[in-house]
Amino acid sequence: MNKDQPESHMKHRRRSFKGFYYFRLGYSTYFAMIVGTINILTTTYFLAAKKIPFVLNVFPTFLSYVLFLVVIGTPLIVLSGWLHYKRIGTYAAEANIVTESTPYSYKLPPGYAKEVFGPAYLAILKLAVKKTQGETLSEEEIESIKKIEDQLVHLTNGGHVGNPPKGLF
């Protein structure tokens, strides 16, 4: 068995998952919206509006009905989206729930934040405390800071730290 085969297999597999993700995103965001809009327009006109004589007088054709709803409905839908985010508090409530239910809102997420940035902040804090008290760093503390520095350089150069899930890199 060729030792490059598993890496090639992983790249192919990752590409397949990316393609599936893009498919789901495109389908749920765009295709479903377009199909849903067409479905609502045809259903409301041909099943509901056609049975009400007043509506048929106002909208004698399906095209006139669609044009009216596009001209009037689109700004109303945009307004409702704007109200959702900016005015009525529903988006703030959703964001609050997501924040409360996400454990990483309350602890360092695994990866560079936990492996490098957390220890770097602690080292800076310890250094500041020692400096204000006129103390010097021990050899062990200097080595620890140098290790963090190496990790930061490694991250800056595009490397990874910690234990990423298998197949990620």
Overall mean pLDDT score?
86
Q: Could you estimate the helical fraction of the residues in percent?
A: over 70%
Please give the domain count.
2
* N- to C-terminal distance: 21 Å
Fraction of residues in β-strands? under 5%
E-strand count: 0
The topology string of helices and strands comes to HHHHHH
Q: Please compute the radius of gyration using only Cα atoms.
A: 29 Å
- Helix count equals 6
Low-confidence stretches: none
Coarse morphology: elongated
Sheet with the most strands?
Answer: none
Structural class: mainly alpha
What does this structure look like?
The chain has 169 residues and is an all-alpha fold. Helix content is 75%, strand content 0%.
